[in-house]
Amino acid sequence: MMLTEKFDQLKALFQEMEQALIAYSGGVDSTLVAKIAYDVLGDRALAVTAVSPSLLPEELEDAKIQAATIGIRHQIVQTHEMENPNYTSNPVNRCYFCKSELHDTLKPLALELGYPYVVDGVNGDDLHDYRPGIQAAKERGARSPLAEVGLSKVEVRQLSQELGLPWWDKPAQPCLSSRFPYGEEITVAKLQRVGRAEIFLRKLGWQNLRVRSEGDTARIELPPEQIKEFVLKTDLQILVDAFQDFGFIYVTLDLEGYRSGKLNQVLNREAVGVKV
Prior knowledge:
single chain, alpha/beta, 4-stranded parallel beta sheet, 3-stranded mixed beta sheet, 11 helices, 7 strands, globular, NAD/GMP_synthase, LarE
């Protein structure tokens, strides 16, 4: 299907909804959903961002700026997944409990405000990855317009660019809890440590990256083609000193490079059918 056809389908979906509350993280996907929803529904669309320790403050500021640029009404709510041991123990289906908390917060809000639909930014590619959070959202009646019309991540960026959204090429920024190997307990202090490390690297000019945390070790992931430049241009001693100030003891560089969902490679796909 041509991109223009999918775009038309997206607009038709929102016309049918008449009102929609958007689970809006400020990422490329949910921002495109917010943009189209606002263009179709105007003030009958509301973007809501959930704030918790797993969200970088910088990401919240980006979400605010982007919402203001679009023109959509924007509301912030607090979620409390860190109070759930099913989440902080970091099982393989951790995202299920995160999205459960999110949609258990958004659905009552939507009903209270008179919005019949909660929609998210899940795209067509997400359906082919291990994403237990999608199940939690579906169980609570959320809709995923991008996935419904089969829009891929590449198409999300392409359409965002065609619509003039300046953040169309913004790197993916999943919640900070995704930086920890399954089974390692997640704490607010650990989330803050990882967040500060990633902010430090971004201020040095490296944007598409991850700092994976395992015990007291930080493992930096960069696109493979940037690794050599990173080693040559970065004052490694200053970097190590900074990371140790953040609370890490060891600092390493992943020679394979950054790959989305890398921590999922430890999962036995046939055994992932976790009951929730």
